[in-house]
Amino acid sequence: MSISVKPFGHLPCGCEAKLYTMTNKSGASVSVTNYGGILVSIIVPDKTGKIRFPFHGETIQLAQNSNGQHLHGGNVGFNARVWDVETRENADGDALILTLVSADGEENYPGELHVTVTYRWNDKNELSLHYEAVSDKDTLCNLTNHSYFNLEGDAFGTAANHTVRIDADRFTPMDKDSIPTGELRDVTNTPFDLRAGKVLADGFACEKNDEQLTFGQGYDHNFVLNGAGMREFAEVSAPVSGRVMRVSTDLPGVQLYTGNMIDCFKPGKCGRVYQKRDALCLETQFFPDTPNNPAFPSCELKKGEKYDHTTVFAFSVK
Fold first, then answer.
1. Region 97-118: what's the mean pLDDT?
2. What is the pTM for the complete model shown?
3. Quick check: 124 and 147 in contact, CB under 8 A?
4. Contact 76, 82 (CB under 8 A)
5. DSSP 86-120
6. How far apart are CA 78 and CA 290, in angstroms?
7. Tally: H helices and E strands in the chain
8. Is the model more confident about 272 or about 30?
9. Distance separating alpha carbons of residues 37 and 96, to the nearest angstrom
10. Catalytic positions, please?
């Protein structure tokens, strides 16, 4: 295992962003930047062996950065901050340990929050994301990762040919503004029944006749994961490359987002301009709008207690 570091550009403030790449013995790699702790690329082999594609009695109003709603941490979320990075190379896998401090009152969140996210990459092509946080006041904490995946490679185009399985008997329907209604709806006989696996294109074909898919312009919904503790809950596969991604977590939910709002003007890493539904996200999480829905699992983090959750993305072929 090895870790390499190279420049990744400069921010308007003059700070330099860096790109950290962990490469295992097979040559498969994961690249992460300290700007936002963003997962920039995962390069793993296809089925031919080729590695392709480059609270508490008072009302708290959090920052309203999306049509009057609070989304992705506010006006300047953690994805737009430069994190401190420590690198560790080990025989059984490399690690990038990213840390930052969110000041008391930032984006109107109470408490000074100390956050650590550890990316681990091993020779089994398993990427582990371990989230840790501690606050000096009672606060809310719901950390996730918004990486986009196309298992055919980013030059391929649409991800509509991907088959997605999610082990969830229920999902949280939303209103026209994408806010959960508070209902935990059975997926049976709906396009949201992904328990046996579904080709995304087959789900998209139901959009005109399904209010929820219309609201999201595709899948952009939280699934209530079955079971508790660390468990595998999803499998994504692509027919051309043969790549498979299996995902495990100890969190209660996952947001399946199928890139419905992708609208790029500049070319991406592969030189092409990304289009709607060119990729998908699996954002493990506590449910959206949890503070306003007492029936949802709570994301309250008590003063001095530790937020401690893990998600693992495992890559293979078939």
1. 94
2. 0.89
3. no
4. no
5. EEE--TT-EEEEEEEEEPTTGGG--S-EEEEEEEE
6. 19
7. 2, 20
8. 30
9. 10
10. 146, 283
